[in-house]
Amino acid sequence: MGKTIELKTADGHTLSAYVAGPDNATRGVVVVQEIFGVNHHIRDMADKFGAAGYKAIAPAMFDRAKRGVDLGYGPDDRKEGFGLRGQVTDAQSIEDITAAAKALGTAKTAIVGYCWGGSLSWLGATRTKLFAAASCWYGGGIAATKDEKPNCPVQMHFGETDGSIPLTDIEAIKAAQPGVEVYVYPGAGHGFGCDERDSWNPEAFELAQKRTLDFFAKNLK
After folding, report:
1. Which of 21, 56, 217 is nearest to 132 (CA)?
2. What is the pLDDT of residues 145-154, one digit of tens each?
3. How large is the average pLDDT for residues 135-153?
4. Over 90: is that where the pLDDT of 1 sits?
5. Angle at alpha carbon of residue 159, lines to 215 and 140, rounded to 5°
6. Would you tell me how many other CB atoms lie within 10 Å of the CB of residue 175?
7. CATH number at residue 79
8. Any bridge partners for residue 55, and if so which?
9. Alpha carbon distance, N-terminus to C-terminus of the chain
10. Range of the domain at 28
11. CA of 134: how far to CAs of 168, 198, 217, in Å?
């Protein structure tokens, strides 16, 4: 449904990005990947936002380390993904997210991310002023930066049984950010929003996606 384009960041890096949705959309969304690249799942999510009327863009955040990363969800994929993640700094990621947001050219723009992208969506909300809303799905790094000040409304989605994000971390985030909408989905694990993972939870996904779309519609008027 979408197409791949090339972006240039302010620090001179060139990266690819998957774009979906109507070209003339007035509302946009940056879709930030997990540690598995701009794979089928991330492209599918961009397509879903495109079908909802947004111009969506998913920047290839691993292009700084390795171009064309498109991983599955097996142990070897996970190992490679973690290795690549370690080669990209938060500052570099913000440069890539910024380039993606500017490339959309929409009047108002949101950001949504999953896993690593969930954490980066939080940083997009706190370290830039590009976004009118942010939705962060199971971002494991959010607890470590929970005291940063968001520059837009933020919504977060966590799985109750996520083995990598303890409930104590979620409670700490809630305490530090009383103005942020934080949802915990009963019986849902890490990656519950990906239908290609064993942890896929369709009920939790549908509710979190509805909340995200409603949140964006409210804040991107």
Report:
1. 217
2. 999 999 999 9
3. 98
4. no
5. 85
6. 9
7. 3.40.50.1820
8. 28
9. 26
10. 3-219
11. 22, 26, 12
Active site (catalytic) residues: 115, 162, 190
9: amino acid identity, one letter: T
Tally of domains within the chain:
1
**In the chain, which residue ranges form alpha helices assigned H by DSSP?**
40-51, 75-85, 90-104, 116-127, 167-176, 202-219
- Quick check: 159 and 201 in contact, CB under 8 A? yes
- The per-residue pLDDT for range 21-55, each reduced to its tens digit, is 999 999 999 999 999 999 999 999 999 999 999 99
Residues in the chain, total: 221
Dist CA 28 CA 56 (whole Å): 6
Instruction: Enter the tokens of residue 154.
Output: 């933020």
The two three-digit tokens of residue 160, written as one number: 């109750």
Q: ∠ CA(92), CA(142), CA(128), 5° rounding?
A: 45
Supply φ then ψ for residue 209, to 5 degrees.
-70, -40
Amino acid at 135: S
Judging by DSSP bridges, how do beta strands 14-20 and 133-137 pair with one another? unpaired
Q: Strands of 108-114's sheet, edge to edge?
A: 3-8, 14-20, 55-59, 27-32, 108-114, 133-137, 154-159, 181-185
List the structure tokens of 69.
């990363």
